[in-house]
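ok trying this again, last paste got cut off
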Amino acid sequence: MIITDITGRTTGEADGMLALIKLVSEPDAYREKVKALVEATEEHKRFVALVGPADDVLTLREAAKADREAAKKELADSQIAADAARTNARKAAMEIVQKATEDRNEMLAKASAVVSDAKAKWDEVSRAQSAAAEAHQKALATQQAAAQKAEQYATATQMLDAERAEVQGLRDALRKKLAQIAQAADL
């Protein structure tokens, strides 16, 4: 017995029987319903032909399931490999950062030592310049004192030369007098 009509609606048995009698009693409506049923059957056959035999559908379903499982496994393996690569990359990055930090600290220590040494040498040069300036001032003072002494020496030498000349003049005059006295005594 027909429980659903052509549209797919469910009807009760009494209603279905009444609908069938009514449908059969009207030949135009009956032909229309049969035509619609044939068209729907043809449409369904096309869909079934497109889908394929049930064995093929099951085989394809199993293959799709196997492909999904393989893809899940491959995804899990890829995730594990990615995690390992990420861990290795982090480890390598940490080693690079640590080495760079050590190198930087070493360079900073060397630079500090160079700066300290340069400051010490600068202080030493500054002290040497101060000492040189002081020595220069002393040398200028000594040179000035030597110039004064030289001038005093020159003055003293001139005075001595004048005194010598005077003494020589007195000697000459005394010799002359002695010669005159000796001559007068001889006479």
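PB: full thing came through this time. The chain is about 90% helix and 0% strand.
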